Structure formats: C-alpha cells, structure tokens
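queue> pop job 88
queue> type: inverse folding (structure -> sequence)
queue> payload:
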C-alpha cells in the first residue's frame, strides 16, 4: 500500500469559513501565510484560499506612506489595506512590494508570501557586525560594552561612568556605492542622552570611528544630538559634507511597538539619496543632502552612539532591523 496519496495542490488551502467572505478577500491561513479567497463563501461553507508564493496582487494601499520596491508589506487587518508595518493586533506579513508607490497612491503591487534574504544584514547576516568599545567595559545587561542580544534584536548603551564612551555596530558585509541599494533600520530608543555630550547616529558609511561619527568620511546618516529628540539628517561624499539638518520629526522614547521607528535610505540615485522616517520622505528640499556620487565606498550599515565626557547616559538603543537590499536598477 502506498504511504502517501495526493490530497490537494499546495497552492490552495481549504478551511471552513467562520464568516462570510467575498471573492478576492484576504485570508490568513493556519500556517501563517497570506491567502486570497477564491469565490464568494458563506459562513460555515468550505473556503478556498490561494497562497501562491510570488503571486503578484494589485491591492488597496493605506495612505500616508511611500512604498519602495522590494520593501516589506503587511496586511492591516482592521483597515483592510496594505501597510509597511504591523502593530499589536491581527496584522500579518504579506510579502514584498514589487514597485514604488507614492504616499497618496490608493493601490500598490505585492508579491505574495515571499521573503528573500537581504544582501546585507547587520543582525542576522553571515558576517554579522563588528563592534569596538571605547571606555570601561562592564558585565551585566546594564553595563557598557559590546551589543547585548535580546531575541532577534541587539542593543547598545552609554552608561553613567564618568569618561568618554563610544560603542558601534558596523556590518562586516558591505556594498558598492552604485549598487542601487535601499537600507532599512528599525529602532527603539528606551531613553535618550541626558545631556549634550551624547550623540546617536545610524545609516550607511564607509567605516566607523571610535570617538566621533562626524569623523567618518563617507556617509548618509540619521542623527540625534544628546539631550534632544529631534531627528537630523546629514551626508558626506568624502569631499563635501552636508551638516546635520532637522527633519522636524522627533523620536518617542520607549521600548514598546508604539516606540518603534522605521528609517529608510534609498540609494538608487547616488546624486540624491532619499531619507524616509516611518514611510514618509523627509528633507527632500535640503540642498545636496544625499549627493554621494563622489564616494568610493564600499558602504556598510552602521549604528553608533558616543559621549565625549561626563556621567550622561543613552539607551539602551534597541536595533530591531538593520539591513540592505541591492538591485540592478
């Protein structure tokens, strides 16, 4: 007797509907994948959901954020629309955006259920990250030193020891300046610096510094001056530096999902790298910001905090995601 019989094609999942559904409705199947309902279904009837990996769907998009090709897409269960993030409710992962879409666009295109590996991943890539502490290291989760692991996240901090301190996370893997890159950072700042001696910086760079992120020669950075909450943007191509300029957006301190901020750097045009905070472009009118065409690279992902002296503190700064994807164009 055969040990297995074909039951059904793996692209269609059948379940008993707990409510009425219409053809084309989204449905999360029991294994967590996103499915699209085939045919109108009454409550209690058999529901067929297509879960074809890579199936490209034209979908309703939530307004107020820019979708970037290749970015992560989620189904907002309560809004019945696509978003770039999820919160603590019934939202679930859909796949990846296949094309850019403006903030005001009402539709977008998503490749269902695909999650390709990032080309560079600061937390989970083969190379991981390098970290060089400047200051007196201490044991324990509240001590100064190398990044601490919290599940899939890592965290760094500056402590109250009266000294200059600096800690960074620089990706081992790098990418060419002209490799049509998009970098993503998801951060939670538990507590900002208590005074002006502290600084926080994250973005892409050709290296790091053991004392001062401003000393790095090639970069596109987001930045926070210690004691403030306003997020700044800056860039340097090795010759011309555009100093830290306000984005007019302020970070919210805390460790919950509500305190999670998402930052993107779109480097597909090296004459005008675009900066995004929580899906909205910032500093589009800042002259020469993001013009790094003269940079030679290669660039890596960097998260960097520092203080020049004294007993001020930062953090912990939780890094939930820091990765980059590359493309032909």
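queue> result:
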């Amino acid at each position: 007797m055969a040990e297995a019989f074909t039951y059904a094609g793996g692209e269609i999942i059948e379940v008993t509907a707990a409510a009425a559904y219409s053809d084309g409705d989204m449905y999360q199947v029991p294994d967590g994948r996103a499915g699209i309902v085939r045919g109108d279904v009454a409550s209690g009837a058999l529901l067929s959901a297509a879960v074809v990996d890579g199936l490209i769907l034209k979908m309703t998009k939530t307004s107020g954020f820019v979708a970037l090709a290749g970015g992560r897409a989620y189904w907002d269960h309560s809004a019945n629309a696509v978003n770039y993030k999820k919160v603590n409710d019934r939202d679930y992962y859909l796949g990846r955006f296949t094309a850019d879409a403006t903030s005001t666009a009402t539709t977008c295109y998503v490749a269902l259920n695909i999650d390709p590996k990032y080309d560079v991943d600061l937390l989970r890539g083969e190379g991981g990250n390098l970290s060089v502490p400047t200051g007196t290291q201490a044991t324990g989760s509240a001590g100064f030193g190398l990044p601490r692991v919290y599940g899939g996240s890592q965290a760094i901090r500056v402590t109250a020891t009266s000294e200059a301190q600096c800690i960074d996370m620089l990706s081992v893997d790098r990418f060419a300046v002209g490799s049509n890159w998009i970098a993503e950072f998801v951060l939670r700042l538990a507590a900002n610096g208590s005074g002006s001696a502290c600084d926080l910086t994250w973005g892409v760079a050709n290296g790091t510094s053991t004392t001062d992120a401003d000393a790095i020669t090639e970069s596109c950075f987001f930045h926070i001056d210690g004691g403030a909450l306003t997020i700044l943007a800056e860039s340097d191509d090795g010759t011309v530096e555009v100093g830290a300029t306000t984005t007019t957006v302020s970070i919210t301190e805390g460790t919950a999902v509500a305190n999670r901020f998402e930052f993107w750097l779109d480097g597909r045009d090296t004459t005008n790298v675009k900066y995004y905070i929580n899906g909205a472009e910032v500093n589009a009118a800042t002259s020469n910001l993001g013009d790094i065409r003269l940079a030679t690279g290669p660039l890596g992902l960097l998260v960097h905090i520092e203080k020049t002296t004294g007993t001020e503190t930062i953090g912990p700064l939780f890094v939930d995601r820091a990765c980059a994807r590359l493309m032909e164009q």
